[in-house]
User: What shape does this take?
Amino acid sequence: QKEVEQDPGPLSVPEGAIVSLNCTYSNSAFQYFMWYRQYSRKGPELLMYTYSSGNKEDGRFTAQVDKSSKYISLFIRDSQPSDSATYLCAGDMRFGAGTRLTVKP
Amino acid sequence: GAVVSQHPSRVICKSGTSVKIECRSLDFQATTMFWYRQFPKQSLMLMATSNEGSKATYEQGVEKDKFLINHASLTLSTLTVTSAHPEDSSFYICSARDAGVGGEKLFFGSGTQLSVL
Assistant: This one.
């Protein structure tokens, strides 16, 4: 079993939709959680970082962590075509498989 | 956010040659850097953890004699792919851990596309 599980998708939504990306993890020792966005053939870009249960908001992005159920989520409001990318969740230094998102105009 | 510089972004080499990839943290000191390999449409595969001033820790299945890692300073780690072969062709990405105020964060370089002919 992978330490971080993430549905690889692909996920396709219309422009303006709310996107929900989810991961589960198995290691209860994980202390911090991150979401990255990766465009094709580029290095991942840190989007959100959190180390506690609850919500953290930054612009159109909201990261949610539930340590009791070992569940992490990323919500994207008012999605744009430029949000089309692969989104990677991570617990400490362990990454999920990444979810490919396409936002159609 | 913090900046991690990775060079070169693309390299093409002949089979049997060695290739060095550099990873620099530009505005923070990184005692720990990580090297990943990524195949098309797949996630990051951690290859090794590079610790400043000590030997790298390699993940299971990664040949340490083939992928030489040197972390000589707090801002520079290098990965050398020795005697490269076509099967080593891949996208290599480094990251650096910034243990500053607010907790640890991981920042990535822009990646290096290695093509071995």
In short: The mean pLDDT of chain B is 91. The interface with chain A takes residues 1, 4, 6, 34, 41-44, 46, 49, 91, 93, 95, 97, 103-111, 113 of chain B (CB under 8 Å).
